[in-house]
Amino acid sequence: MQVTQQPTPPPGAYTPTDRTVPTRSAERASYDRESVHAILDEAYVCHLGFVRDGAPVVLPTLFARVGETLYVHGSTGSRPLRMTGETDPGLPVCLTVTHVDALILARSAFHHSINYRSVVVHGTAHQVTDPEEKRIALDALVDHVVPGRSADSRPANKKELAATAVIRLDLDEVSAKLRTGGVNDEPEDLALPHWAGVVPLRKGYDTPVGDPDLAPGTALPDYLGSH
Predict the structure, then answer these.
(1) Among 20, 48, 32, 39, residue whose Cα is nearest residue 169
(2) What whole-number percentage of the chain has pLDDT above 70?
(3) What's the pLDDT band for 27 if we cut at 50, 70, 90?
(4) pTM (two decimals)
(5) How far apart (Å, rounded) are the C-alpha atoms in residues 165 and 86?
(6) 41, 129, 142, 175: which could form a disulfide with 20 (CB 3.0–4.6 Å)?
(7) Is the pLDDT of residue 87 over 60?
(8) Which residues are CB-contacts of 22 (< 8 A; sequence separation ≥ 6)?
(9) Residue ranges of the alpha helices (H) in 92-148?
(10) What SS3 state is found at 161?
(11) 152, 62 in Cβ contact below 8 A?
(12) Cβ–Cβ contacts within 10 Å for residue 23, how many?
């Protein structure tokens, strides 16, 4: 890949490349490592894009971050997992996550928008074959959904491990993009009699509902009761 010369990134930032510099609203892009990690860590689901038989494929799936590596969960029979075998050179992929933080309702239809935080990761995915790395990855995938849950559940047995595959994607070619703030209406539209403003969105746990077959005396875990 030919890369256009970019300014030297600040400490703690990813290096911009031709694929990570937006062609629109480039001022919203961020390469700050901590910001990228925070956006990834808050998301439950990523979308994994790749090309199969000349056609684009995008799959929603669970993922987790361990340091500068993303682990993506899948079945051993899934398409991306079959294409990242141990002897293959890896699978070129694009992984994305997005949070919608608010709806922006403007006086004009054109200026309606959303406040969002997103991350795009380009790279080559490889299947995880080392047993210890796979164990770490699977624990991280469980804890990513609910922190502390991997220590409060039965680990996968041999049959389950054989049916589960994990692919690894290093965080190297990465960018975040964010939109914050309020309405950007045209000055001539400010007097129009249409409500305009920001509608914040929020995410969180609702009241947990226990399984009917819970063993007697099983209490709600602290990591759920505190939310």
Answers:
(1) 48
(2) 88
(3) confident
(4) 0.85
(5) 12
(6) 175
(7) no
(8) 28, 29, 175, 177
(9) 131-145
(10) helix
(11) no
(12) 5
